[in-house]
Automatic annotation (TrEMBL):
Residues 14-136 form the MsrB domain. PROSITE patterns: MSRB (PS51790). The active site is at C125 (nucleophile). Belongs to the MsrB Met sulfoxide reductase family. Pfam families: SelR. Residues 136-155 are annotated as: Disordered. Zn(2+) binds at C53, C56, C102, C105. Its cofactor is Zn(2+). It catalyses: L-methionyl-[protein] + [thioredoxin]-disulfide + H2O = L-methionyl-(R)-S-oxide-[protein] + [thioredoxin]-dithiol. Keywords: Metal-binding, Oxidoreductase, Zinc. The gene is msrB. Its EC number is 1.8.4.12. This is Peptide methionine sulfoxide reductase MsrB.
Amino acid sequence: MTDFDLSPPTDAQRAELTEALDVDERRVLLQHGTEAPGCGLFLDNKDDGVYTCRFCGLPLFRSNAKFDSGTGWPSFFEPYDPDHVRILRDTSHGMIRDEIVCARCGSHLGHVFPDGPPPTGERHCLNSVSLQFTPRGEPLPDPLGRGGAERATAD
């Protein structure tokens, strides 16, 4: 059970957060787009910390779960907390895939595949524009003003 408030943003918060997104962030997060492989900001990031949802700030993945999948997108073998992501069936582009969305705001993050490393065997393949990074010891983003666990640091 997570210590984070997973209730969705209000309509007013959603409108304000949407205004702060650039064109690529809107296309990926809100319209289920994909960034080109090999160009994402976090592809080669080796810093210690937590990756959070670019839209609502929910912690999604820890840096110690990140691995080089060779796919051109940041990849992780497990989420920060299983309750922080939802898996949806994606049948777009003539394929059947498992889409990963933020459990709080529903923003598109990427896809999960069953070809990752131990211990989970999962490869959560994410778009960098769907993420923010908080270095270890820094306060996590709290764009919804929730306080509580939302004020914790990336540990």
